[in-house]
Amino acid sequence: MASTKKNSSSPILATEILQEIFKYIRDLQTLFSCLLVNRQWCRTVIPILWRDPFEKGPSPTIIQLYVRSLPESARCRLKEAGINQISDCIGSTIFEYPSLLKRLRFGDISNSINAWLTPSKIKIDIQDKIKSSEVLREILTLILQSVDSLDELIIEIYKAQFAEISKSNFVFPEFDGVDEPLKNIRKLHFKGNYLSQDLWKPMTEKMTEITHFRIDSSMFSNNDQEFAANFIKKQKNLAHLCLSRNGCWDALASLAVIGKSIRTLCFFKLDFEFIDERAIKGLKACINLRAVDLEYCLHCDSLGLIEAVKTFQNLKYFACLSERRTMPTEIVKTVLETSGNKLEFLFLNPLSWDTMVHQEIIDSLITNGQTLKFLELSGLHEVDTGRILSACPNLIDFIFCAHGNSNLEMMTKIAKTAPPTLRHLRININGHQMSIAIFRIFLENLQIKLESFHVGAPYPENLKAFLNSNGIKDTYPPGRVEVLRKKFIPTFGLEENRFARIPEEFGGR
After folding, report:
1. What are the backbone angles phi and psi of residue 131, rounded to the nearest 5°?
2. I need a surface site. Which of 61, 96, 447, 454 has the fewest CB within 10 A?
3. pLDDT digits (tens, 9 = 90+) for 266-317
4. Where is the F-box domain (predicted)?
5. What does the H/E/C string look like for 246-275?
6. Does residue 249 sit within a domain?
7. Distance (Å, rounded) from C-alpha 112 to C-alpha 366?
8. Quick one: DSSP state of residue 476?
9. Alpha helix (H) ranges present in 193-301?
10. In which domain, by residue range, is 27 found?
């Protein structure tokens, strides 16, 4: 008879199953605890912890471990360059940590090297910068030569780091023989005010499979614009593009070549008043666009942008966070009328709390809001609130800032007109005190089961207990306010909550 005794050395769960479980754990302390259970758990957790070791910011300790992994030839070069700290980094490491990297953060590695080389210096001199550049080259070369594949590359460069270093002293990593790690990168992000083509051109010339491309730069030269446009043109599967500041029209014009693959466009602080015809043509080529996000942009009602938006007939997500007191009415109407039968996410929020939603937007919402599931609006009257809720039968999440004199009337209208699908309700009431009596009336009239309900206005502490006793889940700190643009604005319903439930298909942050 075959023995039924279990092999005590065999793992209870396969490594693949553990990997699938651990990847959903976000808390680092929990992962560290899992690491101590046994060898199998340790081998499974270590790659997760080291895929993005600079997630919490720069760390000289991580640099020490990377330096210990350097080959002897690289260590000798650094010693010859006068970097005496090499002598303190001796002994091999248990794991090959550089090979586990998935998200390469250029800026954090550079800052970590500075902290490792000059821990007590506030201001770094030119010689320290040259030494830091030497270490940076060796570590980046080590990573690129040892890593199996990189998912994301974040290049962050500021003038204060490298501007004083001459080209003869500014060293770059070796890119020969590292084709595969660069080819496997899917997300590329540039930020800072010093985009040096000497660095980013050799790094990116082998990348053709980027799906997410983002540029956050206030210094965008003509050469950078041309290179960014050419880089976009050669991408095969670019789906998410985020551009900030001005000087991006060449990049938008390049979409005329690959626009069909674009699913998400995000613009930050762009002025569309002077958008050129080439950029408009590029935008019109994005016929499969699903999401548009306009944050702090100017002149969103420009004829050129509206002309392009009219071709976006498959939008599911549109957000406009305005920096001014007026909301761009024409572009919102155009989006609703063009994609009204498909639009599911609509976020409209100027920073000024007293901005009223234009009546034309409200009328368009009532006509075209049947498919909306998530809606954020600032500046609604109680009458309009009831009309909008009645016209949006599929609404799941409703965030709004109310403008009216009667809190009781507004809350009663919400209770009577809220669709059965509504699960999350967040209200800003311009600082008016909400009494427990009004909430009691609201809850008595409410015919649906809410999962969360938050009010962005000060109210007594015992109101939290009152809400909880009535089955209203409290998941955000109640009554917290922040100073924004010299005004006390309730946190609820503003930028902090806007992306809480954005599906990954839109490249949500």
Report:
1. -60, -45
2. 447
3. 998 888 988 889 999 999 999 999 999 988 888 889 999 999 999 999 999 9
4. 15-54
5. CCCHHHHHCHHHHHHHCCEEEEECCEHHHC
6. no
7. 53
8. S
9. 197-204, 222-233, 249-253, 255-258, 277-284
10. 15-46
What amino acid is encoded at 208 in this protein? T
Per residue in 96-113, pLDDT (tens digit) is 888 888 888 888 888 888
Is position 30 within any domain? yes
- Do residues 441 and 412 lie in contact, with contact meaning Cβ atoms separated by under 8 Å? yes
Whether 434 is in a domain gets the answer: no
Helix (H, G, I), strand (E, B) or coil at 429: coil
170 or 182, which is more confident: 182
Instruction: Give pLDDT, residue 485.
Output: 28
Our count of domains for the chain comes to 1
Distance CA 359, CA 254 (A): 37
Beta carbons of 84 and 106 less than 8 angstroms apart: no
What would the pLDDT profile of 24-46 be if each residue is shown by its tens digit? 777 777 888 888 888 888 888 88
Residue that is written with structure tokens 């209203």 in the block: 472
Least confident residue range of 49-58, 376-385, 386-395: 376-385
Tokens read off for 331: 């572009």
Residue 36 lies in a domain: yes
User: How far apart, in whole angstroms, are the C-alpha atoms of residue 194 and residue 217?
Assistant: 8
